[in-house]
């Protein structure tokens, strides 16, 4: 059998702040999960998204050190339309999350914005732009 993609794992420094960020984006994170060292949710497509504290990772990888520099991966959230991209970007930055690139109309035909979650991971918001009538 060939392995199949099943889980995206992320290491967090503040579980509560991180889970609040992803709850605001609509993920069904269980109540009280912020007190746990490992949390995971199953997304609509069956893929799991998990968060672990650095201490949890060091429990099996004592040499673990958090990466530095710019993110090399991102999670992308599709929004209903361009207005939703703007609304979610504003809502998340209004409560103190880092807005990296404010919403813009990208040349590839999408309204796009980039935030950083509390650990600096890139989180993209996008929606298709309406096609011009013609």
Question: Under the CATH scheme, which architecture of the largest domain would be assigned?
Answer: Roll
Number of strands: 7
Order of neighbouring strands in the sheet with most strands: 4-7-6-5
Tally of individual helices: 3
Name of the level-1 CATH class of the largest domain: Alpha Beta
- Spans of at least 5 consecutive residues whose pLDDT stays below 50 are none
What is the CATH homologous superfamily assignment of the largest domain? 2,3-Dihydroxybiphenyl 1,2-Dioxygenase, domain 1
Strand proportion: 25-35%
Number of domains: 2
The CATH topology annotation of the largest domain reads as 2,3-Dihydroxybiphenyl 1,2-Dioxygenase, domain 1
Q: Roughly how many Å apart are the termini?
A: 49 Å
The biggest sheet, with number of strands, parallel, antiparallel or mixed sense and barrel status, is: 4 strands, mixed
Dominant shape: globular
The whole-number mean of residue pLDDT values reads: 93
Q: What share of residues is helical?
A: 10-25%
Alpha-beta content class: alpha/beta
Radius of gyration using CA atoms only? 16 Å
Topology as H/E string?
EHEEHEHEEE
What do you see in this structure?
22% of the residues lie in helices and 33% in strands. A hairpin with a 5-residue loop joins strand 6 (110-116) and strand 7. The mean pLDDT is 93. It has three helices and seven strands; from the N terminus they run βαββαβαβββ. It has helices spanning 15-24, 54-60, 82-94; strands spanning 7-12, 38-42, 48-53, 74-78, 98-105, 110-116, 122-128. The chain folds into two domains: 7-60, 2,3-Dihydroxybiphenyl 1,2-Dioxygenase, domain 1; 74-128, 2,3-Dihydroxybiphenyl 1,2-Dioxygenase, domain 1. It is α/β, with parallel strands linked by helices.
């Amino acid at each position: 059998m060939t392995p199949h993609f099943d889980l995206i794992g992320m290491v967090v420094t503040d579980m509560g702040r991180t889970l609040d960020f992803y709850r605001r984006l609509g993920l069904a994170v269980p109540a009280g999960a912020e007190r746990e060292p490992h949390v995971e949710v199953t997304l609509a497509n069956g893929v799991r998204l998990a968060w672990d504290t650095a201490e949890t990772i060091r429990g099996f990888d004592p040499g673990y050190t958090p990466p530095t520099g710019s993110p090399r991966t991102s999670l992308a959230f599709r929004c209903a339309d361009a207005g939703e991209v703007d609304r979610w970007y504003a809502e998340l930055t209004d409560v103190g999350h880092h807005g990296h690139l404010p919403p813009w109309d990208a040349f590839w035909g999408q309204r796009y914005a980039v935030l950083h979650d509390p650990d600096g991971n890139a989180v993209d918001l996008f929606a298709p732009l309406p096609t011009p009538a013609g």
